[in-house]
Each structure stands twice: as C-alpha cells, then as structure tokens.
Amino acid sequence: MSLSFEGLSLTLRGRKILKEVSGRFQQGRVTVILGANGAGKSSLLSCLVGLREPQSGEVKLGDRTLLSMDSRERGRLIGLLPQRPDIHWNVDVKTIVGLGRLPHAGRWGMSAADHEAVLKAMAATDCNDLADRKAMRLSGGEQGRVLLARVLAGEPQWLLADEPLASLDPAHQFDVLDRLKSYAKTGNGVIVVLHDLTQAARVADDIMILKEGSILAAGRCEDVMTAEVLGEAYGVEVQITTSDAGEPLVVPVRRL
User: Fold this and answer.
1) Per-residue pLDDT at 137
2) Three-state secondary structure of the chain
3) Which residues pair with 210 in a beta bridge?
4) Contacts of 6 (CB under 8 A, 6+ apart)
5) Which residues, given as ranges, of the chain have pLDDT below 70?
C-alpha cells in the first residue's frame, strides 16, 4: 500500500510552509527527508499522518484518502515518532510502550498478541532493562528509545519518525537506524527526517529533499545524494567519500 500526497499546500501564521508538493512513498523502503531548517520537513510529516489538514491537496493510503479514515484506523496503519516527544505520565516503561497497542486493543483490554508485540518492541529498542523504571526519570536518550518502542509496538504499516536520533549516543543511533532498516525489509514503509547527512546516506533507499516548501529532488539515494544537490539544498560545499569500511561519509566543508 503506497503512501502518496498530491498538491499539498500548507500555510501557518501567514507563511506558506508547503507549496503544492506531490510525491509517493513505497513500502519495503526507507525514505529519508532532508532539507535545511524551515524547509517544511516536519510539516509534511504532520500532513502525512493527518495531524494537520492542508489548505489544498490530499494524502492517500493506497486508493483511500487519509482524512476519510477515523483516527483509530489511521493509528493502526501509521505510527509517528514526533520531533522532541515528551513523556507526561510518570508510569513504568512497559505501560508507556503498551500505549502503542491502543488502536488494536479490544473492549476487554490487551490480548496475548498485544502483550507479545510490546515485548518484541522493547527488545528491538534495547528497553528490556528499563521495563519497570518510571519513564519520567529516564534520560532523554532512554526516553527516545522508549517512545520508538511505543510506535513499533503498534506494528504500523507505515512508520514515520522526525529526528529519531536526537539525544541518542552513537551506539544507539546505529541501533535505531538498523531497526528502521529491518522494519522496512519486512515490507513496511519507513519515512525518516534526519539532519545527519552521513547517517542519511547509510540508511536511505530513497531521498526526498525539501527547499523552502518545495521538493528540490527525490529519488534513489545514489541519484539524489550528490554534492551538487546538497549544496543547493543547504548552501554549503559538501564532500562525499567512503570510510575504510566502505560506508558513505558526507562532510559539509564550508558555506557557499
């Protein structure tokens, strides 16, 4: 089931954030959205999950318009890890992760399948040792892993994440990217907003680059992730090389 958008325009506080943008994402692939601050990345994600209604255009899941679905159905199909997510309830971590099953839970509460999904999500995000700790007492990086586990517990067909690497140490950054890649390989769609160009090059199958509310470039990572395109998007000179291990390195050198 593809996730597509056509002719999206969004104006906030008198500023046009998205300018009649159109695109399509495919399941089984990781798409990374790049762009300078204020390019419209987070606003696009908000429209893709139905949190913001654009002034024009529409978002579709398959052949159905997203806003024609009720919130429970959308919650089963699309999971969102927002930018700077907050935990407001001082309950244990396992309870927080279990909230990801709410769109699936029946009238009598969580089933055995729901509990199994929670345990699987916690293991995938290295949260097992946090299960009984109070969520509000965790570090920012630990909270980030817990909230990713909450999204994964919902087993959505589409996982959207806005800056999921924020507050994570380097080891857990690699863990999260590996988990997102694995999630896509099982046939789900993954869309991620990142600022780290090297990490984007390592995880992305596809890249979409926004500039001032428009799509500057979109396509396969190897076709879009070029010094010329990145220079235009960010206003910096970029060098693209590879590490001794053969991994891409994308290094901003200077302002243009």
Assistant:
1) 87
2) CCEEEEEEEEEECCEEEEEEEEEEECCCCEEEEECCCCCCHHHHHHHHCCCCCCCEEEEEECCEEHHHCCHHHHHHHEEEECCCCCCCCCCEHHHHHHHHHCCCCECCECCHHHHHHHHHHHHHCCCHHHCCCEHHHCCHHHHHHHHHHHHHHCCCCEEEEECCCCCCCHHHHHHHHHHHHHHHHCCCEEEEECCCHHHHHHHCCEEEEEECCEEEEEEEHHHHCCHHHHHHHHCEEEEEEECCCCCEEEEEEEEC
3) 215
4) 22, 57, 58, 60
5) 84-86, 108
Q: What is the CA radius of gyration of the chain?
A: 18
Neighbours of 56 (CB within 10 A): 12
pLDDT at 167: 79
Say what the pLDDT of residue 85 is.
63
Give the domains, in start order, of the chain with CATH numbers: 3-255 (3.40.50.300)
Query: In this structure, which amino acid lies at residue 205?
Result: D
How far apart, in whole angstroms, are the C-alpha atoms of residue 131 and residue 111?
19
Residue 36: per-residue pLDDT: 96
C-beta separation of 177 from 159 below 8 A: no
Cα distance between residue 158 and residue 49, in whole Å: 10
